[in-house]
Design goal:
Blueprint lengths: L16 H13 L5 E5 L6 H13 L12 E4 L8 H11 L9 E5 L7 H12 L5 E7 L7 H5 L2 E4 L10 H20 L8 H8 L4 H22 L13 H7 L5 H19 L4 H17 L13
Parallel strand pairs: 1-4, 1-5, 2-3, 3-4
Length: about 300
């Protein structure tokens, strides 16, 4: 980052291309979750990205945010974020935005919340007020209440190791992995209401990128299978996400995982032959949801026994 001038626009931010692309799509499609969880190493630029995103949302300049009536930044009082501060959020949440459609509450670092504050915030997120967007920033997402994490859309910031993937490739892979884990979590829902927003978010991606996304989907499924065997420490593709992977196991069984991977591999083969990417991806998600929720855990994706 430029040490003499804090970035105030997307173009001035170095790196995080995949994260910025995802946030821009949220704004363009006007599909905003009530809470975003910005997770990644300290000092990587999460706060800067959050401020630029908030400025776009509130239609102001990033440098003017501190004085904006619809922006509330919450930081520790001493070494903790206390319940009195969350009660102030509750008070603000009852008010209509002053200048536009949204209010934004930025809370950093989220892991500094004392237990009563975290529980109080959870109650707000369980019935989020219209027009109030939370951005929780943390370097330690799994130190937060699991119920808090489940009510926020996680946005992962990655810092690639030297000598491995270029920064942009590593960010893209992390975003694809996050997408795969989020959609696999959606399979646990009884209805397919989540499908249309997912497909809308993916519609601008070309075949090559969708192939990369499906590769991450297969990697996550493989690690779910490893966890089901009781060997979670061998989760080679996503070793830092074992807790989240364990939460995804749900109704998966090893035969179902094997069938789901087979489905994904079949989809990849069709895409490599230039099949319609949107139709193939939609079919993969619908068939995977049917497989996950099916009563016969030994039925493969063709309907026969495994």
């Amino acid at each position: 980052m430029n040490s003499t001038k804090r970035p105030t626009t997307w173009e001035e931010i170095l790196g995080h291309a995949a994260v910025i692309g995802r946030l821009r799509r949220m704004l363009e499609l006007d599909r905003l979750p009530h809470a975003l969880l910005f997770a990644g190493p300290s000092g990587i630029g999460k706060r800067i990205v959050a401020e630029v995103f908030t400025a776009r949302l509130l239609q102001t300049a990033a440098e003017l945010l501190p004085a904006h009536p619809d922006f509330l930044a919450v930081t520790p009082d001493g070494n903790q974020i206390r319940i009195a501060q969350v009660r102030e959020i509750q008070r603000v949440s009852a008010l209509a935005p002053v200048r536009g459609r949204y209010r934004v509450c930025l809370l950093e670092p989220a892991e500094a919340m004392e237990a009563p504050a975290a529980n109080s915030l959870l109650k707000i997120l369980e019935e989020p007020p219209d027009g109030l967007i939370f951005i929780l920033i943390t370097a330690s997402p799994y130190s937060l209440l699991s119920t808090l994490r489940s009510r926020a859309a996680m946005v992962r910031f990655v810092q690639p190791m030297p000598g491995l993937l270029p920064a942009e490739d590593a960010e893209t892979a992390a975003a694809d992995r996050e997408w795969a884990m989020a959609v696999l979590g959606n399979l646990q829902k009884p209805e397919l209401e989540w499908l249309w927003p997912v497909m809308t978010e993916m519609e601008d991606l070309d075949n090559a990128r969708i192939l990369a996304v499906i590769k991450q989907w297969i990697c996550v499924l493989r690690d779910i299978g490893v966890i089901l065997t009781g060997c979670g420490e061998l989760a080679a593709f996503n070793p830092d996400n074992r807790g989240e992977l364990a939460a995804l196991t749900g109704r998966w069984t090893l035969p179902k995982v094997a069938a789901a991977i087979s489905l994904a591999e079949e989809t990849r083969r069709h895409l490599q032959r230039n099949a319609n990417s949107r139709l193939m991806l939609e079919a993969l998600l619908i068939r995977s949801a049917d497989l996950y929720g099916g009563g016969n855990e030994y039925a493969d994706h063709r309907g026969g026994p495994v």
